[in-house]
Design goal:
With about 525 residues, this protein is α+β, with helices and mostly antiparallel strands. The protein has helices at about 45-50, 60-65, 70-80, 100-110, 175-180, 205-215, 240-255, 270-280, 305-320, 440-460, 470, 510-520, and strands spanning about 5-10, 20-25, 30-40, 85-90, 95-100, 115-120, 125-130, 135-140, 145-150, 160, 165, 195-200, 225-230, 260-265, 290-295, 295-300, 325, 345, 355-365, 370-375, 385-390, 415, 420, 430, 435-440, 485, 510. It folds into two domains: about 5-150, no CATH class; about 160-515, Rossmann fold. The protein is built from twelve helices and 27 strands. Strand 13 (about 225-230), helix 7 (about 240-255) and strand 14 (about 260-265) form a beta-alpha-beta unit. Helix 8 (about 270-280) packs parallel to helix 9. It starts with 6 loop residues before the first strand and ends in a 7-residue tail after the last helix.
Length: about 525
């Protein structure tokens, strides 16, 4: 390992202690560590790509906007000086994945690792993990080349945004194909010829559950492939709460877009695992039309380097025509943070993700929708996330709406963009670990919109990528554009619904056929 004292801090790598962490002592120097190192791009993505005006081919993305292979070789050699084995080196996704041991890798990056026990934000259970506090550093010659080092601290990074109840406790419930019909998903489409990526940070599925579920709907079992990332895999029965998330995602997509193929990416619930799952989905073949993400956590819980790395992976997705649908959160405008201030969830707050909020849908599958309001079952039942980002500025496609943080004149990226049924009291029937449940949460809305994207892409014969410019076209304060059912009643705490876009329900829930008609027209046409 180089002994040079000429070192620099890695920007954005500062880490705060995990909330409520209980120290357990130093990490054994020989403890195995798997980490991901992200490198800078050869060239930044062009503005017309980031704005959705133009898409790149996957090879163009990899060759022009991936990492410089020579720089990747230098960083790989740096890792080897710490005794690490580089097990993946992918210039296209700018990732080096390495196995090593805690002591040498901590020294290499100028930190100390401590064993702690904290509460997993998803399960609420205590979990042992490594923790580091403060910034990372690296030899000065790598300044600007390395943009993120993920995985040294392996605390749980995200939670699944779902709420499950027993079927008898639901006021009403639907299967996802019923919801798709209520929202008038375009006729003559079923997702044929498309692939949807699904990101999971725990849990698993069993084919017996899926076979039973789809047989009850008189649907064939969709094409479903499990993809392991960073040593994780399909593991049903280990984490029942995560199993519910996995089942919800697969069954909603499979019922609402039954001919879309699904690739389910299982990764560890860490900053490295989350990033690598998304990157793996983006660079898969065939390229998916959508990636559904139902996991997230408040913007405040991320290091800037971790948030930026994941945001850039989502930017890669839209660059090659993938629409990334994300759950806006289930804890109202606080996003589960107890400081009395409004917060928004990430990656839903990324300007490159289609942020999906929640409603309470009162409907009859035969007579249609009677009433739809903002989902707010707090204090016990959850409420849709939504608000204004502390991190990301207002995107140009939201400029006319001028989102402002509650009680302030501070502008930022407003979330959600769109909405759909999320209240568990009017939730989705799913089969999990052999048991029928009713599940809600914005975790249901992200896969529902991913299924709609698959059907829209099928109808149009092309992928959609960054969908927001088309969705927001013509949107003005007080009025939602065609293709949306405007949600004008309810609140999520700090924000109230009203006519047009709002930080509870976005532009509204979908009217699928009208939406297809509108986005199929050239930009600027009536």
């Amino acid at each position: 390992m180089p002994e040079s004292q000429d070192r620099v801090s890695l920007p954005g790598s500062e880490r705060a202690p995990a909330p409520g962490a209980r120290p357990l002592g130093p990490v054994d120097k020989d403890e195995p560590v798997r980490l991901t190192v992200i490198l800078r791009r050869r060239a930044e993505l062009p503005d017309d790509v980031l704005s959705g005006e133009r898409q790149l081919g996957i090879e163009e993305l990899r060759q022009a906007h991936g990492a410089n292979p020579a720089e990747m070789s230098r960083v790989a050699e740096l890792l080897r000086t710490a005794g690490a084995e580089v097990i993946e080196a992918d210039p296209g996704s700018r990732r080096l994945v390495a196995h090593g041991t805690a002591g040498p890798l901590a020294r290499l990056f100028g930190t100390t690792l401590q064993a702690v026990e904290s509460t997993d934000p998803g399960s609420g259970q205590p979990v042992r993990h490594r923790q580091r506090v403060g910034p990372l550093s690296l030899p000065a010659e790598f300044s600007g080349i390395v943009t993120a080092v993920l995985g040294l601290d392996d605390r749980p990074q995200a939670r699944p945004h779902l709420r499950a109840i027993a079927p008898e406790a639901a006021q009403s419930s639907f299967t996802a194909d019923q919801v798709a019909r209520l929202y008038d998903f375009p006729g003559g489409t079923d997702g044929s010829g498309t692939t949807v990526g699904v990101v999971e940070l725990g849990g698993g599925y069993s084919f017996s559950d899926l076979t039973s579920y789809f047989a009850a709907l008189n649907l064939a079992l969709p094409s479903i492939t499990a993809v392991g990332v960073d040593g994780a895999g399909n593991a049903p029965g280990v984490s029942p709460g995560a199993d519910s998330e996995v089942a919800l995602d697969i069954e909603v997509i499979g019922a609402a877009a039954p001919k879309a193929a699904q690739r389910v990416y299982f990764a560890p619930n860490t900053d490295a695992g989350f990033h690598d799952a998304v990157a793996s989905a983006v660079h898969a073949s065939p390229t998916p039309v959508a990636i559904s993400i139902s996991w997230g956590e408040s913007e405040d819980s991320w290091t800037p380097q971790g948030r930026e790395a994941l945001d850039e992976a989502v930017a890669d997705a839209i660059a090659v025509g993938i629409t990334v649908t994300t759950a806006a959160g289930d804890n109202g405008s606080s996003d589960g943070i107890s400081d009395g201030q409004p917060h928004v969830d990430f990656p839903s707050s990324s300007p490159y993700s289609l942020s999906c909020g929640g409603t309470r849908l009162e409907a009859d599958p035969l007579r249609g929708i009677q009433r739809e309001i903002v989902w707010d079952d707090l204090p016990l039942g959850g409420a849709t996330g939504g608000g204004v980002s502390d991190v990301y500025p207002t995107p140009r496609w939201q400029a006319a709406l001028s989102p402002r943080r509650a009680g302030t004149a501070i502008a930022g990226r407003g979330v959600p963009d769109v909405a759909g049924d999320a209240s568990p009291e009017t939730g989705y029937l799913v089969m999990v670990d052999g048991i029928q449940q009713v599940v809600g949460g914005t975790s249901a809305v992200a896969p529902l919109w991913a299924a709609l994207v698959a059907r829209l892409a099928q109808a149009l014969g092309r992928s959609l990528g960054l969908l927001q410019p088309a969705l927001y076209q013509g949107a003005v304060p007080g009025s939602s554009p065609a293709g949306f059912r405007d949600i004008t009643s309810g609140d999520n705490g700090a924000y109230s619904a009203g006519p047009g876009w709002d930080p509870c329900s976005g532009l509204g829930s979908p009217e699928g056929s009208a939406l297809l008609s509108r986005i199929s027209k050239p930009a600027g046409s009536a």
